[in-house]
Every structure is written in C-alpha cells, then in structure tokens.
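<given_protein>
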Amino acid sequence: MTTTTALDQVSLQRRVPPLGGFNLVYLGIELKRKLRNRQTLLFTIGFPIVMFVIVGLPMRDQALTDTPISQGGPSVAAYIMVSMAMYGAMMSATQTGSAVGLERAQGWSRQLRLTPLNPLVNVIVKMLAGMLLGLLAIVATYIAGAIGGIHLSAVQWIATGLTAWLLASAVFTTLGLMVGYLVPGQNAAQITSLSIVLLSFLGGLFYPIGSMPGFMQAIARFTPVYGISEITRVPLTGAGFDPLWLVGALVWLAVFLAGTTWAFRRDTKRV
C-alpha cells in the first residue's frame, strides 16, 4: 500500500516539459534517422532530377509565356523543373509514413506514450523532419536545373522554392504520418507512394488541367495537389493569385494534421 502511494505521488509530481516536449534534440534525432535511409534518399531526390533531365531539359529553349526567353521569360523546362521539385518534396515528405509504420511494429509509438510528450508535438516534430527532407529534394532539383541552363530571376527561384517547400512538404508529411499510423508496417510506404502518383496526375502537377476533360478538371480542383501546384507556379506563369488555392491547401493540412493526431492517440490508447 505504501509503495503504491509513493508511485502515485511520483507520477503526480512528474511535470509536463515546456512546449509539450518539443526540443531541437528530438527534431535532430528524427532528421538523422531519415538521412540514414540511403535508398529513400536516392529515390526521392534522384528520381525528380532524372525526370527533369529527360523530360525538361529538351524544352529549355521553348518559351512558357508570351515573353521570349531572350527577354527574361521562363521556359517550359523551368515549369517542369518546378513541378519535379515539388514532386520530390512530396515524395520525401510522405516517406515519413513508412517510418512511422515501422515504429508502430517495433512498439516505439507506445513507448512514446509513456512519456510526457504531447501527441500533437510528436506529430509536429515528425512533420518538421519530413519538411527538411523535402527541402533537400527541392534544392537538389534546382541545382540540377541551374547546371542545366535554366535561367530565372532571383525572385522566381526563391518564391517557387519556398512555396513548394512550405506548402507541399507540410501537407504531404502529415498525409504520410496519417497513413503510417493507420496502416501496419511496410504497407504505409506503398500506399503513400501510390497516393502521391495518383494525386499528382489528378491535381495537374505534370501538365495543365486545361488539357483534361471537364469532369477531371472539376475533380482536380478538390485535390491537395492542385492549389499548391498553382500557387508554386504563379511566379513563372504570371497568372493571378486565387485565394481559394491557399484555402484549399490549408484545409487539407488541417484535415491531415487532425487525422494524424487522432490516429496516433487511437494507436497508443491501450498504454
């Protein structure tokens, strides 16, 4: 009886750490774990570069807009480069899901629930690690573009890169996490990879949705890829900004974040 009372007192005295347990050390550990997976890095970073070189570079002399390339206009190759960079960021980010699936199989998620770590903080840390991995994919693709002769203004380089990173990486990291907490083991990686390919085609990442049939265009506008890709390419196309694009991206981010937090709690509620 005395022992039980003492344990209860210790449990009651245990304080929740500041910021729910968020710290840079934990973030650094998550990032290092992802960087050790060389197969994932090769696929998520190498594939967009290869696709850009094969599909994009042959079109570097073809103007994207009415402004000639000689007068500072972007090329079709630049359009493809940005799309491939965004695709790489999405793939890098969603690979977080496969890691979570393995953590669940090994019982690591339940171990975390024994700590004062806030479930939402755990999701945010993993999301930030996935975003940093996505940034690496974007930078690598842009370096390949610059070496290949893509000419953009400083504003275009920075604006397209930041938008692809902040929006695509955040949204699709949370998608990967949600799938990882819902699907067991290695299946998470297969599902997220297939989802990204399908959403990229449906959302018009690889080609303008204007070339799709009417019903496909309607579907595309409700995908998480559509708004992000349109915002990312505005600095290239010169099209007007539609606030609904951003609203759609933020709504999907909120949905995936809420779904991930719920799935994490459900997965570990028996602890």
